[in-house]
Write a structure and sequence with these properties.
heterodimer, A: 148 residues, N-terminal domain of TfIIb, 3 domains, two-stranded antiparallel sheet, 5 helices, 7 strands, 33% helix, elongated, B: 540 residues, alpha/beta, Dimethylsulfoxide Reductase, domain 2, Rossmann fold, 4 domains, 5-stranded parallel β-sheet, 21 helices, globular, binds iron/sulfur cluster
Chain lengths: 148, 540
Amino acid sequence: MQTKTLADPLSRHGIRKVRTICGYCGVGCAVDVLARDNRIVAIHPAWDGPANQGALCIKGQFAYDYVHHPDRLTHPLVRGRDGRFHRVSWDEALDAAAEGFLRVQAKYGRHAIYGVASGRTPSEANYLMQKFIRVAFGTNHIDNCSRA
Amino acid sequence: MSNPLADMEKPDVIFCIGTNMTEAHPVAATRLKKALARGARLIVADPRRIRLAEMAHLYLPIRVGSDTALLLAMAHVIVREELYDLEFMEARTEGWEAFLEYVQPFTPEWAAGITQVPAADIERAAIWYGSADRAAIYYTLGITEHICGVENVQSLANLALLTGNVGREGTGINPMRGQNNIQGAGDAGALPNNYPGFQPVTDPANQAKFEQLYGRKIDLEKGPTKVQALEMAGDTIFAMLIDGENTVVSDPHQEHTVRALKSLEHLVVIDIFLTETAELAHVVLPAAAWAEVDGHFTNTERRIQRIRKVVDPPGQARPDWWIISQLAQRMGLEGFDYDSPVPVFNELCRVSPIYQGIDWELADSGRYQWPIPYRGHPGTPRLHEGGFINGRGKFTFTHYRDPAEVVDDQYPVWLTTGRRLETYHTRTQTGRSLGMDYLVAEEFLEVHPEDLAAWGLEDGDWARVSSRRGSLLIRVKATRRSPRGTVFASFAFSDRPINVLTGSGYDPITHTAELKVCAVRVEAVAPEEVGPIQETLALA
Ligand code: SF4
């Protein structure tokens, strides 16, 4: 038991280490994210990362504070009749989102709706964005942000 | 990229054009440095004397937007000096005889007049590239963000086909993809012309396949691109769903973008911050960020890599896959009852020939580069090794065209835009990371010191920059990185929205915006005009 603790000084301090991929550029450096109490405390380069072999640039290594920034959106928002955003439940927000698309479709037809996916989000999000547009409206009104 | 990142260490000659690799893809640049340490020669073509240019054995300071002229002249020299690979062209390409004829008129002297690079240097670049055993091309948005982006890429392909620099170690045509998962977004089918796995929507066989998979017949016509869609907003398009993109700041011609989004009757934005784009929405859905979700990114070398959840998202924020699935279910759609990202990814693999050989579990190793056409296939680090997917390599007869906007008496200065090492895209993330903000706390315009003097400005002064579309106040910075007559700024800061100036034109095929060139005027401003601006900055 004691050897295990010695070999794992991170967990002795309550720090978890999770292997993931840097979220900034297309090089795709592998990183080990160190976290304690649901907060990221450091990022280490992964020496066996296939794209980076232990190298990282300053963005990959240090630019993670944004994850815990107080500006993060924490509630769905819906614009009210007063023109302002109001915090609402997921139920209300999803209903408002869905209802708006159905309303526009009823009024202008299925080609009146367009989806913009992101080069930042995981492939799973992109796959579902295109599936949503194609299944909901039967159109190819979908693109990602690679053109600008 | 046609070749793996590991190949960056192996060429004899490296030709970098329109890529600010040391700033935009720093870790890739370290691999390139290894090749240089091994004795490889580096040619850099870029309008600005960037760090990479300082490292080059041969630097070609081309005028912005003149790439095609340079590349045609390089092909001319390779043909004239008989440095082409006849065996390769005969075995793997078609139309090469006509191409050898075609490049006859494009002499280095002709190109020198357009590119402002001495003919002798163009010649030397061509001879180095043409005589290397292994020559590799690397490029980024400096090639594609032009009205002639497609022709620029085709011109690069011509050079590689001419010299047989494809499908081998240390060669290839290698675009460095900018955003972390821009490759994956295309792979997954978030494109108006392709289903997942780059299966064209215009092919009736694909239409039938997806009708069967999705239970709905989808148009056989391509959809409009995002650029076109923004133009159609308020006219034929009245609702948008935007996931994780700050369109207002990243797109050219900001006023037009804002007007387009405001004309929508329904705008739903999924994001992690209340961005300038989200502020225009009717419904804003809070997403989980990087390090808060499980999934995959595909990097620039087509490597599919697992990303893992480290921490919980704040408050009610949820992963994008959950949000989109829920939205679809509210609209009464079938086939969206996912309980995790695992079945989503497995479905993507099942429907995409290039991902067919893997699934969530296999992808865990990070070992696979697509195409992985069947189970047990090892993946494809290097494309075109035995042959081209579409048969023979085709030469394209490219033409030089002036940029959509050229300098004139009213707007006599070239503006080119780009990225800086310390900021990322529209800075919604790096602007909120303490150390980063300290490094680059505001945007500035890079100007050659002699231009500054000629315009009556000094380093650090405020200036007004105007184009045909808009104008803004910005501080100037003297630097010899900018050639005379060309100024540079990044589009990272929303308080200095450089994209109010850009947006003069688009590539007619890809609709990529010509963000790299526009004509501007730079003027000194009176202190009274600057006063209130500085106050806003101080408050921010
Ligand atoms: S660490 Fe730097 S080079 Fe590596 S993926 Fe992240 S941003 Fe790109």
